[in-house]
Automatic annotation (TrEMBL), chain A:
PANTHER family tied to this protein: ALDEHYDE OXIDOREDUCTASE FAD-BINDING SUBUNIT PAOB, XANTHINE DEHYDROGENASE SUBUNIT C-RELATED
SMART domains in alphabetical order: CO_deh_flav_C
Residue ranges occupied by any FAD-binding PCMH-type domain in the UniProt entry: 1-223
InterPro entries: CO_DH_flav_C (IPR005107), CO_DH_flav_C_dom_sf (IPR036683), Diverse_Substr_Oxidored (IPR051312), FAD-bd_PCMH (IPR016166), FAD-bd_PCMH-like_sf (IPR036318), FAD-bd_PCMH_sub1 (IPR016167), FAD-bd_PCMH_sub2 (IPR016169), Mopterin_DH_FAD-bd (IPR002346)
Signal sequence extent: none
GO molecular function terms listed in the Swiss-Prot or TrEMBL record: FAD binding; oxidoreductase activity
Native organism: Caulobacter sp. 602-2
Name used for this protein in its record: Xanthine dehydrogenase family protein subunit M
TrEMBL record, chain B:
SUPFAM superfamilies tied to this protein: 2Fe-2S ferredoxin-like, CO dehydrogenase ISP C-domain like
CDD domains: fer2
Self-association state and partner proteins as the record states: Heterotrimer composed of PaoA, PaoB and PaoC.
Signal peptide positions (record): none
EC number: 1.2.99.6
Function, in words: Oxidizes aldehydes to the corresponding carboxylic acids with a preference for aromatic aldehydes. It might play a role in the detoxification of aldehydes to avoid cell damage.
Catalytic reactions on record: an aldehyde + A + H2O = a carboxylate + AH2 + H(+)
Swiss-Prot/TrEMBL keywords: 2Fe-2S, Iron, Iron-sulfur, Metal-binding, Oxidoreductase, Periplasm, Signal
GO cellular component terms given for this protein: periplasmic space
Domain 2Fe-2S ferredoxin-type positions: 41-117
Protein name in the entry: Aldehyde oxidoreductase iron-sulfur-binding subunit PaoA
Organism field: Caulobacter sp. 602-2
Location within or outside the cell: Periplasm
Domain of life according to the entry: Bacteria
Length: 316, 208
């Protein structure tokens, strides 16, 4: 690990300004992903700004009937919150399907959104990676692709986003609230928060330099049967090969988003009209444009079947 | 015999020597990048009820502070990347991977390690149950397993749900399935899992 200076932020705005002014600085909260990457020298900040003291750790009702989740709410606390369990079950389920109890106790809401890919070539510093070194090339293309993206990938990157929580937030139409170095606040729809890789896979989110996430907001509850089905190589404590976040109503209508298949949570609203006609019908639109290899083509079949299981479960 | 005496280094001394050589080699390796000066910082926290103040390189993890600076070597370094759980300790009542947390981020915190739960003279009920049920072979993962298990039982009592909890809105109950899911962040390479489950279940007051 490279040496770094360490300081505790005093306010969200000051933290944002400090980061904006120093290209070598990074925020740290739970640290469960950043420190892992610093040990491997994939991340090499010269300065860490600890945001844990910023009192962004409450879950409060919004005036339009939703919930505002502070950026520092730990994954364990968000999953266990009574309101989330009752009205946003897909979010509790997604969080509990991810990581381990120890990690969920530390990992934060904002940090979960900002975690980096687990693409094995991103982690292997002996191999070129456009995320680590823009322009270096992608070792994953033509390599071991079984766990990698089948939708929305580019010639520069086929990494997937590893978060389960983000897939649930996508299906719930959440928004990401931020504050900038000048104190300006804005709200980013979750659909626009994570980017597709395109030619700049190192740019992973819509955040500007120095912009700090302060909260994630959920709109008012939409009812329906909430489920998160995660298919992985182990029964617990593994990243998704394919996951499905779903909210399905009695009449068969609803929403579905996929994890493990793309550089961001994958949802196609236009395809959801076909949901009452079943998994095959909705998958046609949702998986349109997929590009697979012989190693990861199974993800398309798996996604359709996982959606099918969610639909069946929702019918009771 | 003099030569033999020289060789009578403990395993720990050999490891420390290896680490020192690593440090000595660092300036040469860093020639491509500007020299980095370590930043030292003071931090105070409580470990097993005792107040501790340390001056540490900011890079020091909580695990290394416990093991290398406070000589509490019960907590183990397995993978050092949060994957194996051997480093699990309890901070302010919650289990965490101490390898994935910087010591300087624990100002004022209360840390409990395996040494704080019990010792040979007075075993914690979980320690006694692990002995009784043979919940280990090599023992390397055991301190992490026991710290994790203690926190798991408290999480269930506090109503924290898990991936295998059937009804998110119902009361959370102890079961083998709950225990196995919640302990999945603690790897046992010897495969003593079934005995670990029996040991923890006995302490939980349930039949394994």
């Amino acid at each position: 690990m490279r040496a770094f200076s360490y300081e505790r932020a005093k306010s969200p705005r000051e933290a944002a300004a400090a980061l904006a002014a120093d290209p070598a600085a990074r925020f740290i909260a739970g640290g469960t992903n950043l420190l892992d990457l610093m040990k491997l020298e994939i991340e090499t900040p010269a300065r860490l700004i600890d945001v844990n003291g910023l009192k962004l750790d409450e879950i409060t009702p919004t005036k339009d009937g939703g919930l505002r989740i502070g950026a520092l709410v730990r994954n364990t606390d968000l999953a266990a919150d009574k309101r989330v369990r009752k009205d946003y079950g897909v979010l509790s389920r997604a969080l509990l399907a991810g990581a381990s109890g120890q990690l969920r106790n530390k990992a934060t809401t904002a940090g979960n959104l900002l975690q980096r890919t687990r693409c094995p070539y991103f982690y292997d510093t002996n191999m070129p990676c456009n995320k680590r070194t823009p322009g270096a090339g992608c070792s994953a293309i033509g390599g071991f692709t079984r766990t990698l993206a089948v939708l929305g990938a580019s010639e520069a990157c086929i990494a997937t986003h590893p978060s389960d929580m983000a897939v649930a937030l996508r299906v719930l139409d959440a928004s990401v609230e931020t504050v900038g170095p000048d104190g300006a606040e804005r709200s980013i729809p979750i659909a626009d928060f994570h980017r597709l890789p395109g030619e700049t896979p190192h740019v992973e989110t819509a955040l500007a330099r120095g912009e700090l996430i302060t909260a994630v907001t959920l709109p008012r509850p939409i009812g329906g049967v909430h489920a998160y089905r995660k298919v992985r190589d182990r029964a617990s404590y593994a990243f998704a090969l394919v996951s499905v976040a779903s909210v399905i109503h009695k009449d068969g209508s609803g929403r579905v988003a996929l994890g493990g298949v793309a550089h961001k949570p994958w949802r196609v609203e236009a395809a959801e009209a076909a949901l009452p006609r079943g998994a095959k019908a909705v998958s046609e639109g949702l998986l349109a444009g997929a590009r697979t290899t012989s190693q990861n083509a199974f993800k398309l079949t798996l996604a359709e079947r996982a959606i099918g299981a969610a639909v069946t479960e929702a019918r009771g | 015999m003099a030569i033999l005496d020289d060789l009578q280094l403990s395993r720990r001394e050999v490891m420390a020597t290896g680490a020192a050589v690593g440090v000595a080699a660092a300036p040469g390796m860093a020639s491509a990048a500007p020299a980095e000066q370590p930043t030292l910082m003071k931090v105070s926290f409580t470990v097993n009820g005792q107040r501790q103040t340390l001056e540490l390189d900011t890079r020091t993890t909580l695990l290394d502070a416990l093991r290398e600076h406070l000589k509490l070597t019960g907590s183990k370094k397995g993978c050092d990347h949060g994957q194996c759980g051997a480093c699990t300790v309890i901070v302010d009542g919650r289990r965490i991977n101490s390898c994935l947390s910087l010591a300087v981020m624990h100002e004022g915190d209360e840390v409990t390690t395996i040494e704080g739960l019990g010792g040979p003279e007075k075993l914690h009920p979980l320690q006694a149950a692990f002995v009784k049920h043979d919940g280990y072979q090599c023992g390397y993962c055991t301190p992490g397993q026991i710290c994790s298990a203690k926190a798991v039982l408290e999480e269930i009592r506090a109503g924290v749900p898990s991936h295998v909890t059937a009804d998110l809105t119902a009361k959370v109950e102890f079961s083998q399935a709950e225990l196995r899911e919640r302990m999945s962040g603690n790897i046992c390479r010897c495969g003593a899992y079934s005995n670990i489950v029996e040991a923890v279940a006995e302490v939980a007051g349930a039949k394994a």
